[in-house]
Amino acid sequence: MRYDGGVPTTLVLMGVAGSGKSTVGPRVAAALGVAFFDADDFHDAGAIARMAAGVPLDDAARRPWLERLHALLAAHAAEGAVLACSALTPSYRAILAEGLPGVRFVALVAPATVLGQRLADRRGHYAGPDLLASQLDTLELGGAVRTVDADRPVDEVVGAVLDAVRS
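Predicted structure:
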C-alpha cells in the first residue's frame, strides 16, 4: 500500500510494553503488504539483561538501538515496513524517522491496569511488569502521533490502526 503521492507505507506501531504491538503489528503489515519487524529483536545483550532485571534503559542505552532501527527502516524505505517499537518520546521518533519520507506513528494505548495484567500474563519476554511505570512516565504522545485504543479485541485494534494509517 502507498500513501497519497506514492510514498511507501512505513509505520511505527508504538506504545509501552504490553500494548499489543507484537500481536497487532504482523497483522497490520500483512494487510498493508509490507514486512514486519519487532524492535525487541534488535536490542543488544546488555540492554536485554538490564531490562530483564527490571532496570529501564536510559537515553544513552537506547541510542544505538534506535540507530539500528533507523537503518532498518531506511533499508526498507523503497517498499515500506511496519516496525513495532516503543518510540516513547518525540526525540526517539525523530531518530527513527530522520530523512525518511512518510513515516507514520500510531500508538496503541490502554489503561495501566490492562497493560500490567498483560505483562503479568506474558511468558518468555524480558520486558516485564517492573518496566511499565517507567515507560508510562516516559511516554509522550501528541503531535503527529495517532492513537488507537488497544483495550478491545485484536481484530478491532488492527482495523483501527489500518484506518489511522489510511486517513
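Summary: Strands lie at 10-14, 35-38, 81-84, 103-109, 146-149.
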